[in-house]
Write a structure and sequence with these properties.
alpha/beta
Length: 348
């Protein structure tokens, strides 16, 4: 099913003096999509969000928002809402008064009073609606800024680090609002340094580095860019697990983890998923209980580090050892193997 385009940018370039913030950026965001912007500090994310909100203009390139070409003026079509660098609020007013003032300033319809109450409820601020904003935490201010954006009934919502300062309850409310807007056909463009938020909210992401796009596409495809990952295993017999891992084709044991230091010590290995599957089989056959298995760094975060060149230098893993002529007694299949505990694999 074809969806209309909420944002279409081609060759966007923006400089501040000698600093090139954006360099030939292309961006496509269809209606009904939550699109994430991610990148190191100074990559150009906030600059790009500012262009979408009409807070700045591009030096070169073309930008179309909600079907309307944006020229060289500080303006965007109706239906665009959001904030960068945190929402602008009146600290001496209550949360309800802030939204009512915004509604009056924007000359919304006569039903804005009901809209204010509904917006506060959606972001979970009903209980503090009549408290002054100067006493709000960062997360509460973020949610109030989102409530202000909801008053406009946006068709394009632009958010800069909306998860900053959120506790679990606040995160739940914000995620519910964002996914609800997308389900109703609005486009959402948000920046975040939290890979778990990107995985939970976004269907596509754009990764920026030094003002240029190094990746743009589905979240699953970005995760696939991580290559071979390091995985941590917690077993009932770390020394045996390390020996078995070293003899599993395709796996390499990452040095620096002494499996003999304590009973519950972990073993870190590097390799593709099929090789991990083979290791699990070998552990079970050897009667070694597998208590936990998961990536040391989540796939999205690993891809971010790899594509932006901001990760640490890779550790040289020990190559797999050849199978011995006679199996080690620990590896021999016992008459009654101890059942392995359920493995827990996180693939964020």
């Amino acid at each position: 099913m074809h969806r209309t385009s909420a944002v279409q940018a081609r060759g966007i370039t923006k400089s501040f003096g000698d600093v090139i913030a954006l360099d030939g950026v292309d961006l496509d965001v269809p209606s009904g999509q939550v699109h994430g912007l991610v990148g190191p500090n100074g990559a150009g994310k906030t600059t790009l969000l500012g262009l979408l909100l009409g807070l700045a203009v591009a030096d070169r390139g073309s930008l179309e928002i909600l079907g309307t070409p944006v020229g060289r003026t500080l303006s965007v079509p109706g239906g665009v809402a959001g904030f960068v660098d945190g929402p602008g609020l009146y600290p001496s007013l209550t949360a309800r008064q802030n939204l009512a003032a915004l509604a009056s300033l924007r000359r919304y319809d006569a039903g804005h009073t009901a809209d204010v109450g509904d917006a506060l409820e959606q972001v979970g601020l009903t209980d503090v609606a009549d408290d002054r904003v100067r006493g709000f935490s960062l997360g509460m201010r973020q949610r109030l800024g989102l409530a202000a954006a909801l008053l406009t009934r946006p068709r394009l919502l632009v958010l800069d680090e909306p998860a900053n300062g959120l506790d679990p309850a606040g995160k739940y409310h914000v995620h519910r609002v964002i996914t609800g807007l997308a389900a109703d056909g609005a486009a959402v463009v948000l920046s975040s340094h939290r890979m778990d938020d990107l995985a939970a909210l976004c269907s596509e992401v754009t990764l920026l580095a030094t003002g240029r796009i190094v990746f743009s596409g589905p979240v699953g495809k970005l995760a696939a860019e991580s290559g071979e990952l390091d995985y941590r295993l917690v077993t009932s017999d770390p020394e045996a697990a390390q020996r078995l891992a070293a003899r599993t084709p395709g796996l390499r044991v990452v040095p620096g983890h002494d499996a003999g230091q304590r009973q519950d010590a972990d073993v870190v290995v590097r390799g593709p998923v099929p090789a991990l599957d083979e290791l699990v089989v070998r552990l079970v056959q050897a009667g070694v209980a597998l208590r936990e298995l998961g990536p040391v760094v989540p796939p999205l975060e690993a891809a971010f580090l790899a594509l932006t060149g901001t990760g640490p230098e890779p550790t040289q893993a020990e190559p797999a050892q050849p199978e011995p002529a006679q199996a080690d007694p620990v590896q021999a299949e016992p008459a009654q193997a101890e059942p392995a505990l359920a493995a827990k694999e996180e693939a964020r």
